[in-house]
Amino acid sequence: MTEPTSLPIFLLISIVKIAVVLVITLTAVAYTVLLERKVLGRMQNRWGPSRVGPFGLLQPLADGIKLFLKEDMMPLAVERPLFVLAPIIALGCALISIAVVPFGATYLYKGVDITQIANVNVGLLVVLGVTSIGVYGIALSGWSSNNKYSLFGSLRATAQVISYELALGLSLVGVVMRAGSLNLRHIVDSQSAHGALSWNIVGGLQIVAFFIYLMAAYAETNRSPFDLPEAESELVAGYHTEYSSMKFAMFFMAEYANMITVACVATLLFFGGASSPFGHTFDGFANGAFAHVAFSIFWFVSKILAFILLYIWVRATLPRFRYDQLMGFGWKFLLPVAMINILVTALALAYHG
Amino acid sequence: MQLALFIIFGLLAIAGALNLLYQRHPINSALSLVVVMMSLAVLYWSLGAEFLAAAQVIVYAGAVMVLFVFVVMLLNAGEEERTHGSRIAYIAGIPGALGVLGLLSWVFFSNRIALGTTTVGGDLNASDNLKAVSHMLFTSLLLPFEVTSILILIAILGAVVLARKEL
To answer: Which of B5, B25, B31 is most worth mutating to test chain A (most A CB atoms within 10 A of its CB)?
Structure first.
């Protein structure tokens, strides 16, 4: 953290980093939507979007233009300031948590690390905190819409997110105990000794924690099979029923940005972050610091992509839960198992250490 | 730079607190309180207490205040009205709040050598900040820590007992 650089250079590089990461994240969000539609189409034995551009690759652009040009409807009975504020909170929180994610091996340019926007000592807690603030976007959107379906959707979403946040946080404690730090870089470094064998999911024996995290994270992002807040057969569209045009698009983008964040955290905590699955075996091929960083970013992006494909696969496969089953599953199964995992990990660490 | 952040978010916290009192609708007041909590977290951060800042955001802004907003939404509470009691609270409240503020400032200023001081942004570079906090919690402050956990456990049991009566 001790930067020898002057403040203007640090600020300038930071702003460039933020702009680049923001643009890449938003593009990734747009193309995740397309990927989901294509893969879902293939899984359901149809083509998916194929008309706009080669293989439908320009579909996100067309969607973006459509959403921008649509009329922005503002129903008369809404609570106006909160109605406008809610999508901004949702999208803002979804994008902010990317800031602490290290997406490559450390590469210093003029004394500033360019593969991470902010290296924070409590990085993991920052991600959790920002995610928990994102609940306000959903809660307020439902309430301010003055529509009973919106309110039901947002109540469901809020209750679900608060409940599953506990299991999510507790599932990460085992990993934090192994690494002995909340800094995301240190957590990644603690798994990089022997490639895939020392990743937390394999070598750290945190496979139970990983599956708890995965299920809780699917519920956190309101994704199938936990997408009850927007169950269209019961609730029209849930909390964003009254939203149109770009305000709706912001909720939509927030959902996909949250998916990417969840994939980032899963990669960092359980799959060795930006480290190669082969450890240092092929380090000879990537001579030079820059090639090393390029390969680390490649591994990170591949892992994220694998997680997003898993998300889509789950959505195409599993039906929705019933709401009481969802709550029972979170409180009576995931939470106790996460606590047992903490106990066992702590005992194992105490025995070996 | 940390000093600038400290001043900006200190002013934001005061503005949020005043807005909390000024707003008539409970949900606006609750959201102002969220702004105060978040500003306090930034203040903690700029003083070097990273863990405290993150815990402040997760526990207060992310859990407690969400439940507040949740309850306000469920009860569909309307705007508050001016009653006789609210006028009495207005007359007695301002001197009372000033009195508490004066008392706390007096205690903090008179014991400032015993309480110790910190510099703005001073301890942010130390990487074992978190370890120091946890070490202190589990050694010298173990008894208060455990007593607090038992208090929370009793509160949870009390909530369960109250909820079971309704079933």
So the answer is: B31
